[in-house]
Write a structure and sequence with these properties.
Elements lengths: L7 H5 L7 E8 L2 E13 L5 E9 L1 H6 L2 E9 L6 E10 L2 E10 L4 E6 L7 E4 L8 H7 L10 E8 L2 E8 L13
Length: about 180
């Protein structure tokens, strides 16, 4: 479908080096099934680096032991992936992949060490792909008006996912850090 993405400068407002985000995963009545930590920094070339660590916890870890680490390097001017490296293990299955993006050629190259059937080159359908964690952070730059839609292009495991998110309602909550 046709999509109109916010300008890079607006999307960039969501990425501030030195931030740490911690999330807890819930699965049914297991309130502490896992956790995810996202950190942001800059590298020596002034690129934005988004590191993500995810792991199962508690009883769920006994049933489904899992840990993943991802390092995504984003172009600071265009706010899109340059490289994404994922390592980890789910149960006894290891994961190790590297995805690079060549915007001049308009292609993504994905190499998976443990699942070579996923290796390949794909045409980049929209000029602003992100990984899941960067997409989550980018949402902070959106105008969250009721009824407004926002497109995302997410890259994961050598595939692209086009997502259209719409603001259905706005709820204000009270937290220790304010409303």
């Amino acid at each position: 479908p046709e999509a109109s993405f916010d300008e890079a400068q607006k999307r960039a407002q969501a990425f501030r080096p030195g931030e740490i985000f911690k999330f807890r995963a819930q699965w049914g009545f297991f309130r502490k099934a896992g956790n995810m930590t996202i950190t942001t920094s800059k590298d020596e070339n002034d690129n934005i680096v988004v590191n993500t660590e995810t792991q199962s916890r508690g009883l769920i870890r006994k049933i489904y032991p899992m840990w993943l680490k991802a390092k995504t390097v984003l172009d600071p001017k265009k706010l899109r992936i340059i490289t994404n490296i994922v390592t980890g293990k789910a149960r006894s299955e290891e994961t190790e992949s590297k995805t690079t993006f060549d915007y001049e050629k308009g292609v993504m190259v994905h190499n998976d060490t443990h699942k070579p059937g996923r290796n390949g080159t794909k045409k980049i359908p929209y000029p602003v792909p992100l990984d899941y964690a960067s997409a989550l952070l980018q949402m902070r730059s959106w105008d969250l008006a009721k009824g407004k839609s926002h497109p995302l292009l997410v890259s994961s495991k050598g595939k692209f996912y086009y997502i259209e998110m719409e603001v259905k309602e706005i709820e204000e909550i009270k937290t220790i850090d304010g409303d």
